[in-house]
Amino acid sequence: MALLITDECINCDVCEPACPNEAISEGDDIYVIDPDLCTECVGHFDEPQCVVICPVDCIPHDPNHVETESDLMSKYKRITGQ
């Protein structure tokens, strides 16, 4: 699954630079994750860096973008060209 930033986000800006795919950007009110770029850090790290670094625990899985580990790896390869 891609990840999703909920409205509990405090706009602290720690998640955006932590994302290796540049999937996180500043939205109108809170930061947002582009599901087309989010691989949950598969291919880069063992766990999603935004989730690890988030001080308010507001980044759950996005139920509208269900993906398997294989799907996420395929997306990683497409994004990185590997």
TrEMBL record:
Sequence ranges assigned to domain 4Fe-4S ferredoxin-type in this UniProt record: 1-29, 31-64
Protein's UniProt keywords contain Ribosomal protein: no
Presence of keyword Iron: yes
Pfam families attached to this UniProt entry: Fer4
Domain of life: Bacteria
Chain segments annotated as transmembrane: none
Keywords: 4Fe-4S, Iron, Iron-sulfur, Metal-binding
Protein name: 4Fe-4S ferredoxin
